[in-house]
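Deviations from the work plan: none for this task. Representative record:
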Amino acid sequence: MGQVVLVTGVSRYLGARMARILTEEPAVDRVIGVDVVAPRADIGGAEFVRADIRNPIIAKVINAASVDTVIHMGVLATPVQAGGRMSMKEINVIGTMQLLAACQKSATVRRLVVKSTSSVYGAGPRDPAMFGEEVEPRHSPSSGWAKDSAEVEAYVRGFARRRPDVTVTNLRFANFIGPGVNTPMTSYFSLPAVPTVAGHDARLQFIHEDDGLEALRIAATRDTAGLFNIAGDGIILLSQAIRKAGRASLPVPSPLVGMVGRGFISAGLADFSPEQVRFLTYGRGMDTTRMREVLGFEPTHTSMEAFEDFVAARRLNRHVSPQRVAAAESGLLSLFGAQPEPSPVTQEADHA
Amino acid sequence: MPEARVIPFDRDGKPGDGQSRVGSDAGSPPLPGSVIDEPDFDQRLASALAFLRHRITGDYEVDEFGFDPELQDKVLMEPFRWLYNNWFRVETRGLENVPDEGGALVVGNHSGVIALDSLMTQLALLDHHPARRRLRPLGADLVFSTPFVGEYARKGGATLASAADSERLLAQGELVGVWPEGFKGVGKPFSERYKLQRFGRGGFVSAALKGRVPIIPTAIVGAEEIYPMIGDARLLARVLGLPYAPITPTFPWLGPLGLIPLPSKWIIMFGEPIDTSGYPEDAAEDPMLVFNLTDQVRETIQQQLYRLLVQRRSVFV
C-alpha cells in the first residue's frame, strides 16, 4: 500500500508540477491536488479536488482518501493572486490553521511538508551574512507574505508539538527562479528598467525551480523531520543580476522608495511591499549545511546558474548579450592590435 | 635601451609612458635584471576592457559576504593606494607576524574620525605582505545601514562585527580585522589621542578562541592626526543619527577643503601573535579567561603604541 499525498496550492505552476512529479513516484499510489480554482497547468495523473482550505471541507478530503502525506504549498506571495491583501492573509493564515486542524484530527496523516520562505528571516543591516536555521530574525518581518509565512511556521511548530508522531519538514526556500515559474522576482527582473535602492546592493540567493521541486520530493518521500534552508550555492548581487538580465538599474534615493514602490504596485508592475523593499535593500543569505548533510539534498544549479537559466528562457538579455559585449571588446582591441584578456575561468583552468 | 632597466617609482606614470615602453621592449626579450614587469599599453587596455565587460554582463563572482575581489583590486583600493603611498607614506613593521595562510585575527587601535586606518591596514597586508593577504574587516551595523558606505564596505570585503560572521570567516581560513574600540575610538577628541578606549565586550577574543586562531595585536600610529577632532557637535550628531559630528581645525570652517586629511606619517606595526590553540575546547565559554585575554591584547597594543610614539621623530616626517 503506497503513499497517498495531498498537495495544496495545486492551481499554480509549482503546485501543479509537484503533483505531476509525485504521480511518477513508485512509492506513491495516489496524488490529490486541492485548490479553490482549477489548475491551469497539466497535473498528469493527479486528481484535482476543488476545495478551499479555509473551511473544514479539507478534513473530509483527508479522511475520505486516507491521506498520509500532506504537502502545503498554498501560501500566496502577493495579494494579486488572492484578489487583495485581506483575502491573501485569510488564505495564508486561516487556510493553514484549517489544514493543520484537519491533519491533527486525522488518524492517517504521518508526514507534513511545508513550503516556507527565506523571507521569514526579514532583512536588515544587523543580519548575519548567512542565516542558519537556528538564528532568530534580527528584523522580524512586519507585513505581507513574510509575516504570513512567519505565522504559518508558528502554527506548524504548534502542530509538530501536538502531533509528535507526524514527521514535519519545513523548507525555507530562497527565491524560486527558472524558465517556468512566475514570482514577484521574475516580474521585477523583467521590467525594462529595474528600480533599486540607491547606495545599497542586496545579496541574493536563488533556487532553481527543478531543484526546489526535487527538495520537496525528497522531503515528501523520506522521514527527515526538521527545518531546512534551501538555496542554490553562491550569492548574486542585485546589480549583478540586473546586468546578467541585460537590464538597466534605476537607483531611487531611499526617501523616495516608498512613493515609487506604491506607484509600481498600483500600476500592477511588480511587488514593492515594504518587506520586499527591505529585502532588495539589504538582501539575505542562508547557510545550507543542514540541507546537504541532514536532508541529503544537493541542488544541481548554483544561484547564478539558476538565474542564468531564467534569463536565457525569457531571452531577457538579447539586447546586451555577453556575445555582443565580447564582440565589441575584441573589435575595439583589434583597432590597437591587441588580444582580449583571457577570462578568469580559463586562467584558473590553466593553473589546475 | 637603458631606460628599460629603470624601475619606475610611479607605477601609473603618464599615459605616454606605456607606449614608449612598448617601443623599447618590442625588439628584445626582457632583460634578466628587470625587477618589475610593467604591463604595456596593450595589456592594460585589454585588462581594462575585460574588466568593463565583466561589469556590463555581470560576469564576476562575489563571496557569501558580498566581497567583490575584482572590483576591490581594480577600482575601490586605487584612491586609497595613492593615499597610502604618497600622502601617509605608511611604514609597516612586523608583517612576518601575520601568517601566510589560515585564519588569524588582526586587532588594531581605531582613530581618525573617518576609519581610514582599517583601509590602510587592508592595503598594508594586500600590497606588502609576501602572501598578499586579504584582510576582511568587521564593521558596525551603522556602516551597513548607511547608503553607499555600506554597499562598498561589503564589496571591499567587510562584514558585520558579529559572532556569527567573524566565526564564519575564521573557519574559512580568512584573515579578519577588528577594531574593538569602535566609534568610541574613531570619534574620540584629539586630546585623548593614542589612549585606547574600552574594548567592547571581548567578542573578538571569543571568536579567536572558537576558531583557535592567533590574535595579532596591531598598533597604528599616524591615524590620530589626520583629522584632529577638537569638538563634537553633539546636538547635530543626534539630529543626524550619527555617533558624533566632528569639528576639526579645518572642518567645517573650510568647507570641502576641510575634508582633506592632514598628511601625517603612518606606522602600522603587527605585533607578536597571541596563540589561542593551547586553551581548552570550551575556553570561549569562560568569561574570566575572555576578559583577561581582552585586557592582554589591549595592553599589548597600548605598549606598542607608546613605543612607536617614542621612536617617531615628528608627526609629519
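The mean pLDDT of chain A is 91.
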